[in-house]
Write a structure and sequence with these properties.
With 428 residues, the chain is α+β, with helices and mostly antiparallel strands. The protein has three domains: 7-148; 162-370, no CATH class; 374-425, Arc Repressor Mutant, subunit A. Helix content is 45%, strand content 13%. It contains 13 helices and ten strands. It has a six-stranded mixed β-sheet, with helices on both faces. Strands 1-2 form a two-stranded antiparallel ribbon. The chain is globular. Residues 149-158 have a biased composition (Polar residues). Residues 149-192 are annotated as: Disordered.
Length: 428
Amino acid sequence: MSKIPTDIQILQEQNRQTAIKNLKDAYGLIEKLVQKTYIDNDMDANSSLRNIRTDVSRIISEMGTKGLGNFDGKEGNLEDFYDSEDRFIATSTAFLEAVNNSLLSQDTVDIFLLETQLGQFEKSLNERILIDQNVLAEFKEKEMEAGLSNDNIGSDATSMEKEAPGTGSFMGVSSDKSTPSEKLPGPFGIKSSEISGISNEKQKTETEIISFSDEPDTETLSGIYNYFNLLEHKYSHNQPEVSHDGNYIGDKKWSFDVSDRRIIGLVKDGVFRELLHFETYWHPMDDVREMMQFVQSRANAVPGGQFRSLCLVASVWNNEIKDWAKGFMHPRLVIFLYELDTGDLIFNESVDTGRNLYIWHSSGREIVSLEDGLQEFMENNEYFDARDIAEETGLNVRGAEKFLQKLADRKKIISIGFGTSSYTKSGL
């Protein structure tokens, strides 16, 4: 009679199946890229993609018919095992994301990126830790220790660092728990939208393939639904006007997609060019290294010319993960952590990207457009120019100039001329 697999053996097999699914999904997308490059007459990329497709097919076949022992594998301890499994899943997901983003992008396919991501996955496959007797014994020991310590867990386990309540800003975040610990300049850039103008088109992103392994209890699930319902209402009635880098995007196409544990917002320039992704989903973690790897893999998969605003949701976040998030910086991704229990939104408040985008992940209900938020400023200042508007908002000077021109076109403000770029409020 065969032995019943231990938990870590089950985990390793589940991860293998997840990686196979990711590769199969990537294979289908590569087929489309092959067709696309053929139509575009990009024969170099077409040939390289065919080679990548062959490699993916080979790896899928080997993973589907062979056990781990047929791959290189490595010896290690229990911590090494968990680290290697994390890398294994992260690299398979990163490869799928890179292929998917290549298909969605209008830029030339980055063959080097795809080859690199696939190489990293194959490396992580061959570096998975073999579950030998030593690893099994260590796992059993940890399991026994955990069982003995469960009765000793008290209130200290739920004692978490609280963010100082925010004061709320005139741009409309009224909830104490929805704003950062210090008042930020903004949140500017919330444009009111007609519901009929918002498309709930499905956006194929990596969050559709994330496994929600940490099943929440009923109370937590209620909190998740309430939070995402609030975000859906916000996304339905408003759209971003200020991008991560301060450009004006109130004239771009805005769409979103909602499920019970995630919401995706997308800003596009025209039909194809994707500029800014907002992604918020339930994904609790306790290990800071796992968090680092998870976020970094998603940051690495963001194509040039795009930016991702990623918010992970949990009941609470431990202090080590909070401290890491408060210092995280990346040129194409900003990370937010939302706590259901406190309503706190944790992020790096020292960077403009976080200050410009946090409102789209906060639980603040009242939001105000750029135009409405600047009414008092325009009333109190007879003349103003783009630099003045940039100082009052998260817009850069170029974005402020574009916004002022929009107001001038609608005769809300008047250019005073005389060789200056200043405006005054219209009396109309």
